[in-house]
Amino acid sequence: MQAQIDGKWDRAYSFFDSSSHETVSRESYVHQTRKLSYKGFGIEEIKTLPSGDQATVKVRIDISFMGYDFKGAPQTQNWVKERGEWFVKSEPQSRKTPFDTQEKQK
């Protein structure tokens, strides 16, 4: 999240899991047009699955979207453990904003 706030998209990409790297290239992610700016974040909840290699993280993010500032927009992230380290499963930015619901994303 901090890499996104800092606009360090190459660094943000390094936190994606291997399946995300297979579907989104580093080049396309780094140079993608973004509709919103990340300003801040806070972690609300982390739930680890019993297997210990997957987790759901609820984050509240402060963003600027279409000229408006929003504080605490909810976002749910899915994380997986690979080679002993945690990585986030990416969602293409063009299809997902903090305003999308789970039903709209499907």
Offer a concise description of the structure.
23% of the residues lie in helices and 42% in strands. With 106 residues, it is an alpha+beta fold.
Element-by-element helix/strand order? HHHHEEEEH
Count of extended strands: 4
**CATH topology, which one?**
Nuclear Transport Factor 2, Chain: A
Gyration radius, rounded: 14 Å
Helix-strand blueprint:
Layout: H1 2-5, H2 9-13, H3 18-23, H4 26-30, E1 36-48, E2 54-65, E3 68-82, E4 85-88, H5 102-105
Antiparallel strand pairs: 1-2, 2-3, 3-4
Report on the structure:
The protein has about 110 residues and is an alpha+beta fold. It has a single domain (about 1-90), classed as NTF2-like, domain 1 (Nuclear Transport Factor 2, Chain: A, Roll). The chain is about 25% helix and about 40% strand. The chain has 5 helices and 4 strands; from the N terminus they run H-H-H-H-E-E-E-E-H. The protein has helices spanning about 1-5, 10-15, 20-25, 25-30, 100-105; strands at about 35-50, 55-65, 70-80, 85-90. It has a 4-stranded antiparallel beta sheet. The longest helix is centred in the N-terminal third of the chain and has 6 residues, at about 20-25.
Offer a few descriptive terms:
single chain; 106 residues; alpha+beta; 5 helices; 23% helix; flat
